[in-house]
Amino acid sequence: MDWNKVGLVVVAAAVIYYAYRMVKSGGYRALVERSRNAPQHWGTFAIIILCVIAFVYLLIRL
Predict the structure, then answer these.
(1) pTM score of the predicted model
(2) Which residues contact 28 (CB under 8 A, 6 or more apart)?
(3) Which of 10, 9, 39, 35 is nearest to 27 (CA)?
(4) Rounded to whole angstroms, how far apart are CA atoms 58 and 7?
């Protein structure tokens, strides 16, 4: 199994899915407006960013 191709397919599917969701929900301007009006949870944001960094680090180590 070629993990590079699997990863490429997963990333491409995620990009297409998020692009479809953005268009369906009113586009980028509506997304920014909803984000600006939403309550800010910086602790959750920090945890998610740390998890992403750890995940990328583990992928590089493998």
Answers:
(1) 0.41
(2) 22
(3) 35
(4) 15
